[in-house]
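dumping this here so i dont lose it
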């Protein structure tokens, strides 16, 4: 992302034939990384005795916390792939929470879900009008939407929830009356079997059972919808002509227009979809997490979603991994977080040592030495303590956000025209 508004650059010169192309990791490499991570996690669990590291309850809680972050990140991905920076995701999520709570308690949670998406779309269209049509700086517009959404929902909550039938049903100026829950899914038989295997605490086998059990037990229909949206977004953006044209608007809209692409249309469509996805993330918080609208319910998840998107290098797969990481770190404070985070310190030591070895192998001596020193300090912390203070556990999601962004910054490649001003007719 960029906070600077500049004019769209001229079309880039074509690459020479035979020039090396960057490619993502192969499926085999990804499977090896996943297998290595599982083995390491299982070893740390056995050494430390912290059974909550990958228990079904921990994974289930992490998944529930990861969904709104992932939807916010997916919303940012759609917008920024079309060249529009969307700092206003937090505000669009706030609009989604209010819309879902407002309509949900009066009618049904399904209509509340649709209303949350609709409120998010309205926020996205407002951002598109400001940035695409009028050329307002994307950061300024996004911050304005965040402030506007917060103020508007606070006013509307006092207007609709503080009196009358809403107050009688349990509403007040800061929250809506309770909303009926949406259905969830549990795979019968398989869930109980996995729980039994998990309770034996076998090496690796119980870890796999805990992870799979957390993914199939009391799974909200909105979580399933979010997973479908991730796959659908990848397919639409990278496997269809519509997605190719949309991404071209984020890479070089001038060249796209010269080939007949209506850049304004694609930017508006992308930002509207972005708003709807952010609104869905807000509706998830109101209808699944708490069954009511609450003031301040989003808790900065729109910003963490942007961090997950950046960590994922503007791609759905990496974004999903980032959202899962942030959701997992956020769930630690809900389930005996002090001892679990203490066990993760040992995992951090191993990762820092591996990073140091890689840096020294690549002749980056200073970075390697710094990683080794950090590993030694964390190891001393682990050996001299039995539990991490609760205040640090509460800050874990934000610490993880900063660490992930700092470690992944060198490999990032955002869309070339992201955040740049575009005016119709530049490609003619």
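and the seq i came up w/
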């Amino acid at each position: 992302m960029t906070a600077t508004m500049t004019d769209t650059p001229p079309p880039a010169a074509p690459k020479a034939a035979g020039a090396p192309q960057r490619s993502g990791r192969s499926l085999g490499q990804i499977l090896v990384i996943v297998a290595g991570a599982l083995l390491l996690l299982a070893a740390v669990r056995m050494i430390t005795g912290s059974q909550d590291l990958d228990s079904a309850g921990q994974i289930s809680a992490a998944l529930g916390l990861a969904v709104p972050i992932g939807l916010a990140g997916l919303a940012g991905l759609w917008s920024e792939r079309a060249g529009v920076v969307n700092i206003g995701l937090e505000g669009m999520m706030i609009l989604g929470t209010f819309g879902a709570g407002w309509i949900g308690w009066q009618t049904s949670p399904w209509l509340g879900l649709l209303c949350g998406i609709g409120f998010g779309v309205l926020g996205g269209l407002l951002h598109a009008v400001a940035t695409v049509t009028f050329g307002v700086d994307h950061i300024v517009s996004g911050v304005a939407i965040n402030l506007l959404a917060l103020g508007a929902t606070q006013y509307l909550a006092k207007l609709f929830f503080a009196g009358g039938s809403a107050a009688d049903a349990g509403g007040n100026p800061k929250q809506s009356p309770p909303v009926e829950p949406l259905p969830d899914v549990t795979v019968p038989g398989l869930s109980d079997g996995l729980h039994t295997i998990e309770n034996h605490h076998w090496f690796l086998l119980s870890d796999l059972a805990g992870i799979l059990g957390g993914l199939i037990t009391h799974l909200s229909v909105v979580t399933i919808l979010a997973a479908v949206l991730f796959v659908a977004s990848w397919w639409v953006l990278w496997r269809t002509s519509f997605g190719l044209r949309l991404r071209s608007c984020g890479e070089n809209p001038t060249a796209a227009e010269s080939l007949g692409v209506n850049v304004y249309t694609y930017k508006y469509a992308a930002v509207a979809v972005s708003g709807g996805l952010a609104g869905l993330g807000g509706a998830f918080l109101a209808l699944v997490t708490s069954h009511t609208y609450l003031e301040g319910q989003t808790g900065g998840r729109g910003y963490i979603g942007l961090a997950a998107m950046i960590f994922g290098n503007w791609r759905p797969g990496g974004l999903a991994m980032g959202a899962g990481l942030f959701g997992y770190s956020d769930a630690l404070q809900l389930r005996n977080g002090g001892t679990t985070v203490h066990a993760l310190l040992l995992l951090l030591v191993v990762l820092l040592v591996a990073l140091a070895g890689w840096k020294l192998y690549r002749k980056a001596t200073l970075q390697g030495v710094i990683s080794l020193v950090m590993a030694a300090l964390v190891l001393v912390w682990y050996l001299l303590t039995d539990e991490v203070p609760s205040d640090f556990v509460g800050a874990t999601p934000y610490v993880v956000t900063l660490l992930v962004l700092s470690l992944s910054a060198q490999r990032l490649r955002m869309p070339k025209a992201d955040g740049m001003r575009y005016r119709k007719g530049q490609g003619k």
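The beta strands are 184-185, 219-220.
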